[in-house]
Amino acid sequence: MARYADTLLADGEQVIVRTRQHWLATIIDARYPWLILIASLILLFLSQNIDNDGARTVVGYIVLAGVVVAIGWLVRVYWSWWAQDYIVTNRRVLKVEGIINKRSADSSLEKINDAILEQNLVARMLNYGDLDILTAADVAIDRYRMLDKAPAFKREMLNQKHDLEGEYGRPTTPPLRAAPPPDVAPAPVAAAPAPAPPAPAVAAEPRMTSEEVTRTLGQLADLVERGAISQAEYEAKKAELLGRL
Questions:
Q1: Quick one: average pLDDT of 164-173?
Q2: Beta 112-118 vs 128-135: how paired, if at all?
Q3: Are residues 94 and 155 in the same domain?
Q4: In a domain, 203, yes or no
Q5: 3 state DSSP class of 109
Q6: Neighbouring C-beta atoms of residue 48, cutoff 10 Å
Q7: Do residues 85 and 104 make contact, with C-beta atoms less than 8 angstroms apart?
Q8: Rounded to 5 degrees, what angle do the CA atoms 10, 91, 116 make?
Q9: Where are the beta strands (DSSP E) in the chain?
């Protein structure tokens, strides 16, 4: 049976890492129902020494209510933990929570600037941590509390970001031909070849709407910000796009 997070994946999107909160988080979140359950059992044990049948009956109802509330609370905590999906795909980081009412949040890999991982001694021993994902403006956009296998999650997220950026990297230009040393005579220039027949007319570039040009310029500006293309390349492409309006 497919999980809810799998239904949110786009075409061609692949899950690289899937995890949730560490099991220790369930113990912390369930501390109050555990206390209620333990207190109810202690009260049940002490009620055996009550001689009054009416008082014992009242205590019995209190114990029963405490046990029912504690068990229902524990089921909710552990079910909520089981329903979590913290996923790294080849395009984004996806966080899904909730039992019936689902909440999903995702961060595009190309917009992630860095990630801050915090681990104390116990977290390093049990392999979990708190992870803050930052945008290019160094603003935390999501926080993963007590994330299981947090170092591996962060490492794979940055690896996928690097691979994604490699698909849009700057194309390499051919090296310039070195000038001959001054003491070497230049090679004789070959006779110019006969002029080639005129090439067929090239179809004009398709026209673009203003919305398409604006969206494309935004993508080019993002590439300039990340250093994928130079400012001169951006200006040349901008002039070309404006000419197609």
A1: 60
A2: antiparallel
A3: yes
A4: no
A5: helix
A6: 8
A7: no
A8: 135
A9: 15-19, 85-89, 92-97, 103-108, 112-118, 128-135, 140-148
Same domain, yes or no, for 122 and 4? yes
Cross-strand partners of 96: 85, 104
Q: Are residues 88 and 155 in the same domain?
A: yes
Identify whether residues 104 and 78 lie together within a single domain: no
Which of 25-34, 138-147, 172-181 is predicted with the least confidence, judged by mean pLDDT?
172-181
User: Is 130 among the domain residues?
Assistant: yes
Q: Is residue 183 part of a domain?
A: no
Tokens 């560490």 identify what position? 22
Range of the domain at 227: 210-242
Number of domains in the chain: 3
Whether 72 and 149 share a structural domain: no
Residue that is written with structure tokens 């947090």 in the block: 150
pLDDT band at 27 (very low <50, low <70, confident <90, very high): very high
Residues 152 and 47 in one domain: no
Pair 95, 144: CB distance under 8 Å: yes
| pLDDT tens figures, 107-142 | 889 888 888 999 999 999 999 999 998 876 656 568
Strand order across the beta sheet in which 112-118 lies: 112-118, 128-135, 140-148
The amino acid sitting at 129 is: G
Q: Which residues, including other chains, have CB under 8 Å from residue 81's CB and lie 6 or more apart?
A: 20, 21, 23, 25, 26, 29
Task: Look at residues 114, 97, 95, 103 and name the one whose alpha carbon lies nearest to residue 157.
Answer: 114
Q: Which residues contact 60 (CB under 8 A, 6 or more apart)?
A: 44, 47
Residue 173: inside a domain = no
